[in-house]
Design brief:
Number of domains: 1
Number of helices: 7
CATH architecture: 4-Layer Sandwich
CATH class: Alpha Beta
Order of helices and strands: EEEEEEHHHEEEEEHEEHHHEE
Oligomer: single chain
Largest sheet: 7 strands, mixed
Strand content: 15-25%
Distance between the termini: 53 Å
CATH topology: Metallo-beta-lactamase, Chain A
Helix content: 25-40%
Shape: globular
Radius of gyration: 20 Å
Structural class: alpha/beta
CATH superfamily: Ribonuclease Z/Hydroxyacylglutathione hydrolase-like
Length: 307
């Protein structure tokens, strides 16, 4: 489904829900045609795929990249921070953080992340590493003029270390990618995900104060019907609330396993090995931050306790 935001800027919504393995995409129909993210599946059939000039990837996650092969002539660009992960399997694996599985999980990794059988036909690839040749990279505040439309790439790490949002200042439109205002809160469970970065990135979006905010997995948010600043503060508050709950739980010594069993972090259903692992990874991010703040210490037995 196409949602017209301006004459040139359009949101591409997947046919069903914009949840994994799908994501929303943005289409700019100007002198140069741009698509941001490639996870909208068959909805791309509503635009001239063969005439798209540029494809920007907000970050390397599968639900944003599985449709790259639709855009035969497009130059593909991504943030410079994650560029190695598109072309080098070792970098891709490193980003996942799965090297910590043995230390965090009792059971070996014997469940797939998601069953690949029965994937919808419009999901052209399957999860896992797939080489994507980049024609270039962008950095924070790089601007691209497409005709009458200009878009600025904003480095907004935290979810991943090379995560980007995209700002159309003239139109007041912000595409915040996976800083998605999910009621469940932010996700930051990989090797280079970082709570401090996440806090800074969301605060940066609050300062922009867009008229319209689009995300990878939600509806269109538009002022004055939506208080976008407040929604962003509430979204960030989920992360800070998790941290406060973890700190409160450490009035007595607790291990990472103990904390994870309290259900303080991220609890989507169904609960799988991967959900448990990512919960523990996010707990580690909080514990590291609390330790840097001097609020907790690690005991000789490997437990954590409040100072």
């Amino acid at each position: 489904m196409i949602i017209n935001l301006t004459r040139q800027i359009k949101l591409i919504r997947p046919q069903g829900r914009a949840s994994f393995p799908y994501s929303n995409s943005l289409y700019v129909d100007d002198d140069s045609r741009l698509v941001i993210d490639a996870g909208a599946g068959q909805a791309f059939g509503e635009i001239p795929e063969a005439e798209v000039d540029l494809l920007f990837l907000s970050h390397y996650h599968f639900d944003h990249t599985h449709g790259t092969s639709r855009f035969k002539r497009a130059g593909i660009m991504a943030g410079i921070q994650e560029a190695p992960g598109y072309e080098d399997v070792a970098a891709y694996i490193e980003y996942s953080g799965f090297s910590h599985w043995k230390e965090l999980m009792v059971q070996p990794k014997n469940q797939p992340f998601i069953k690949t059988a029965g994937y919808p036909e419009d999901v052209l690839e399957k999860p896992g590493f797939r080489e994507i040749k980049l024609s270039g990279t962008f950095q924070d505040r790089d601007s691209f003029t497409l005709g009458s439309t200009t878009v600025q790439a904003l480095h907004t790490p935290g979810h991943t270390h090379g995560h980007y949002s995209f700002w159309f200042e003239k139109a007041g439109i912000l595409f915040a990618s996976d800083l998605d205002l999910s009621p469940g809160g932010p996700w930051y469970g990989e090797e280079y995900s970082n709570v401090e970065d996440l806090v800074s990135s969301v605060n940066r979006l609050i300062e922009i104060d867009p008229l319209i905010m689009l995300t990878s997995h939600r509806r269109v948010f538009k002022q004055p019907d939506d208080n976008i600043k407040q929604l962003l503060k509430e979204y960030l508050g989920v992360t800070l609330g998790r941290e406060e709950a973890i700190l409160h739980s450490l009035q007595e010594p607790r291990t990472i396993d103990d904390i994870e069993e309290l259900g303080l972090v991220f609890e989507p259903l169904p609960r799988t090995q991967h959900i448990e692992f990512w919960n523990k990874m996010m707990i580690v991010k909080h514990l590291n931050r609390l330790h840097r703040m001097g609020l907790i210490e690690k005991t000789d037995t490997g437990a954590y306790i409040r100072r």
